[in-house]
Amino acid sequence: MSATSATVRVGIIGGGLMGREAASALARWFALVDFPVRAELTGVCDLQPALLDWFRQVPTVKHFATNHRDLLAREDIDVIYAAVPHHLHEEIYLDVLRAGKDLFAEKPFGIDLAAARRIRDEARRLGRFVRVSSEFPFLPGVHRAWQLAAGGALGRVLEAKCAFLHSSDLDPLKPINWKRQAKFCGEIGVMGDLGMHVAHVPLRLGWKPAAVYAQLQKIYPERPDGKGGMAACDTWDNATLHCTAPIAGHATPLTLEMKRLAPTETNTWIFEVLGTERGVRFSTKEPKTFWSYRRDKEQWWEKTDLGFGTPFRTITGGIFEPGFPDILQQMWAAFIAERAGLLGDKFGCATPDEAVAHHEIWAAALASHREQRVVPL
Ligand SMILES: NC(=O)c1ccc[n+]([C@@H]2O[C@H](COP(=O)([O-])OP(=O)(O)OC[C@H]3O[C@@H](n4cnc5c(N)ncnc54)[C@H](O)[C@@H]3O)[C@@H](O)[C@H]2O)c1
Q: What are the distances in angstroms from CA 371 to CA 92, 192, 376?
């Protein structure tokens, strides 16, 4: 927090889908109960005037910019949240750090592994507080699964799987956007879009793959360009990574799935771990429901409604269901709390080292697919 202000003042670079979600999370900060730090959106930068106009309805926003350096020159901004296309991550993130601001970065934290390492190293050199956006661990069901797995309650882990599945790209007439073009999204394609979400919890548990065999698919080679023609769609759409992760000293199967074309799935995030004593299973298809497995003479899957038991308490009653905007605000609360040294033993946002570790997996996956072999990490 700034020495001159009791409120963390946030600026947003990139006011598209995620920039506006961040504005919404910050605008209802009062939903958090007894939260020790205030946070407020102060400025925004986007290239599109219509998007800047959208932010004019947020009463706390004082600065509107079309060049991110103009926003960074403002002294009354402590933290920048940057949500721009992946080819701009490195330049903009480095500018943020060098302007003396802390950074809440969007994934994948650079277009490739080399960029991620450069951003991580500069943040370290300058001593800036940097975390990376990844909201699913802030769902009560995921939090519970993480606690059980981290506490060793599962016995010997036999296998783990994490998946993030979309289906909107099943429509071949959906116009192309920057996320389907390698020069903007990165060669890693869907792994850059969805990968941080699937690998974050396994990595936080210390389950970093030691080897990966990847199956990558490009499904529709072109899409309408929105101007009457067609444009090349050259990113990986679906990625299935069969990994081996050392878990408590045992080489254990870990499957990471990221798919843009997964029939029947809208935004389904799945985490499942089976151990000799217990198991956990969570899917966003049942957002308040937590499944856990136990065994005595027989084996049982038990289903519990966790309701709105988010890590940071809010005004919302415990019986309700959490959704995407809720966990986004929880993630922001974790960022702001950790920056102030007040996170305690709660789950923290992804670190720059974790973001680099993600990229190491995706780089190995590209090599595995290209050479059709298991690649050690
Ligand atoms: N955490 C999540 O759940 C989640 C979900 C979607 C996207 N993302 C990530 O968020 C980031 C942005 O994705 P999005 O879906 O919001 O994209 P988007 O296309 O909706 O928004 C990007 C915005 O950046 C603006 N922009 C482009 N160049 C700029 C520049 N030089 N200066 C300022 N603004 C500029 C664009 O005008 C656009 O409004 C990506 O890194 C993406 O991977 C995260």
A: 34, 20, 13
